[in-house]
Amino acid sequence: MDMHNKFIDINEVEMMFHTKKGSFHALRDINLTVQKGEFITLIGHSGCGKSTLLNLIAGLLKPSDGLLLCANREIAGPSPERSVVFQNHSLLPWLTCYENIFLGVERVFGATENRTQLRDRTRAALALVGLTAAESKRPNEISGGMKQRVGIARALAMEPKVLLMDEPFGALDALTRAHLQDELLKIVAKTESTVVMVTHDVDEAVLLSDRIVMMTNGPAATIGEILEVKLARPRERVALAQDARYSEYRTAVLEFLYRKQAHPAREAA
Ligand SMILES: Nc1ncnc2c1ncn2[C@@H]1O[C@H](COP(=O)(O)OP(=O)(O)OP(=O)(O)O)[C@@H](O)[C@H]1O
């Protein structure tokens, strides 16, 4: 039970970047625990350090101070147990959808499973995101939304303990985005995944999250407030649009972003 309560455990994390121009204090005093099966979104103004925090959980960055744990073990580097989906899909252009996913599957399970098992895992992942028919197409032959679905399938096929997503739908048009949010909700319900996702989109945050982690502005950004979204699942966007509680959650996030953390005109300085 205890492990479930603190599946990801972030303790007193600080992040400084050292550049030629000097040091930049990006994150301070970050404390957060994520439970198994929980869906967390990180929201905040541009440059506040959302990607930095996600990359720390991914193990792509090391904290300047503090400790990050996943399933009671220190996060010491990247691992397929914490797979990442980026905004720009990062598929290999010369491989088909099938091959892009197979590559990840082989990396994780290649040493312990035979070709048939690896193939079955790849096909199951393609089916999960509804792309069976596109398996032999290359990334330049499919739409942006389909590419993101392949990215999600590739991440999920590695059976990660945690799925980390950095604005996975940020580059998509509104309708495709809505469609993929709905699909992601179904997939996460089916796989019982633990997800940490960076977003700029308030509606996306409310629709998907169990908790919304709202970050203050940088430099030295930290967690300002955490909003628990107690809307029952499965969630259905059309019904929620008329739900008074949905509007309250939405307003609470907007209030935080545009009143409490109204963005200082740093660009103008
Ligand atoms: N490698 C780095 N070296 C120096 N500074 C960095 C580095 N990476 C990020 N930063 C700085 O840290 C701060 C946080 O960046 P980060 O990309 O995490 O913000 P973000 O909230 O994800 O932004 P956005 O919403 O615009 O993607 C920014 O001021 C950025 O310039």
Task: Write structural notes for this entry.
Keywords: ATP-binding, Cell membrane, Membrane, Nucleotide-binding, Transport. One of its GO terms (molecular function) is ATP binding. The chain is α/β, with parallel strands linked by helices. The protein has 9 helices and 10 strands. Helix 3 packs across helix 4 (115-128), helix 4 (115-128) packs across helix 5 and helix 7 (202-208) crosses helix 9 (244-260). The longest helix is centred in the last third of the chain and has 18 residues, at 174-191. It is globular, with a radius of gyration of 19 Å. It starts with a helix and ends in a 9-residue tail after the last helix. The model has no long low-confidence stretch (mean pLDDT 92). Adenosine-5'-triphosphate binds next to strand 1, strand 2 and helix 2. Adenosine-5'-triphosphate (ATP) binds at residues 17, 19, 24, 26, 44, 46-52, 218.
What's the structural blueprint in terms of helices and strands?
Blueprint lengths: L1 H4 L2 E12 L2 E13 L4 E5 L6 H9 L6 E6 L2 E2 L7 E4 L11 H13 L5 H14 L15 H14 L4 E5 L7 H18 L2 E5 L3 H7 L2 E5 L7 E6 L8 H4 L3 H17 L9
Ions and ligands? adenosine-5'-triphosphate
Instruction: Give a quick account of the main beta sheet: strands, pairing sense, barrel closure.
Output: 6 strands, mixed
Secondary structure category: alpha/beta
Number of helices: 9
Gyration radius, rounded: 19 Å
Q: Order of helices and strands, N to C?
A: HEEEHEEEHHHEHEHEEHH
Could you name the ranges where pLDDT drops below 50 across 5 or more consecutive residues?
none
What helical percentage do the residues reach? 25-40%
Number of strands: 10
Strand content: 15-25%
Membrane topology: Peripheral membrane protein
Protein name: Nitrate ABC transporter ATP-binding protein
Main location: membrane
Family: Belongs to the ABC transporter superfamily.
